[in-house]
Amino acid sequence: MHASTQVVAVASSLLWEVKTMEKECRSQLDLPDLNQVGFVVRNMDQALALYEPLFGPFSCMEPGPMIYDYRGVQEECAMRLAFVKSGDVKIELIEWVSGGCPYKEFLDAGREGGNASPAIYCR
């Protein structure tokens, strides 16, 4: 299976698993409804080409450099972001551009997507 096909398959599978887990475990863990799932990608343009056939057109943004506390130090980080809704869940694609952040560490560790450690946000 081609790597890009695997990424799409993993994303679809993860989204299904998250929605299923959310239904089964939410009340047991006293969690709010699932609202958003994030996937870290190495290349936004390539990711959009893979994910848009599955989920439809994404809204893209480049918010520019943001300064925040990262590992106890003021750090500037830039990212490219893309969003789309799938049912009640917003899907977020995150491309690291520059600076230190958890997404860079995720990519530096050889990971991509949401399979190993997705960013899951609840309302």
Give an overview of the whole structure.
The protein contains three helices and six strands. The model is unreliable at 115-123 (pLDDT under 50). The chain has one domain: Roll (2,3-Dihydroxybiphenyl 1,2-Dioxygenase, domain 1), CATH 3.10.180. Strands 1, 2, 3, 4, 5 and 6 form a six-stranded mixed beta sheet that branches. Helix 1 packs across helix 2 (44-55). It is of the alpha+beta class. Strand 3 and strand 4 form a beta hairpin. The longest helix has 27 residues, at 3-29. The protein is globular, with a radius of gyration of 15 Å.
Distance from N terminus to C terminus (CA atoms, Å) equals 36 Å
At the third CATH level, what is the topology name? 2,3-Dihydroxybiphenyl 1,2-Dioxygenase, domain 1
| Helix and strand composition category | alpha+beta
Q: Helix coverage percent of residues?
A: 25-40%
Shape category: globular
Main sheet: strands, sense, barrel: 6 strands, mixed
- Low-pLDDT parts are 115-123
How many DSSP H or I helices?
3
Tell me which CATH architecture applies here: Roll
Question: How many beta-strand segments?
Answer: 6
Tally the structural domains: 1
Q: Which CATH class?
A: Alpha Beta
Which terms summarize this structure?
disordered C terminus
Short description:
With 123 residues, the protein is of the alpha+beta class. It has helices spanning 3-29, 44-55, 102-108, and strands at residues 34-41, 59-61, 66-70, 73-86, 89-98, 119-122.
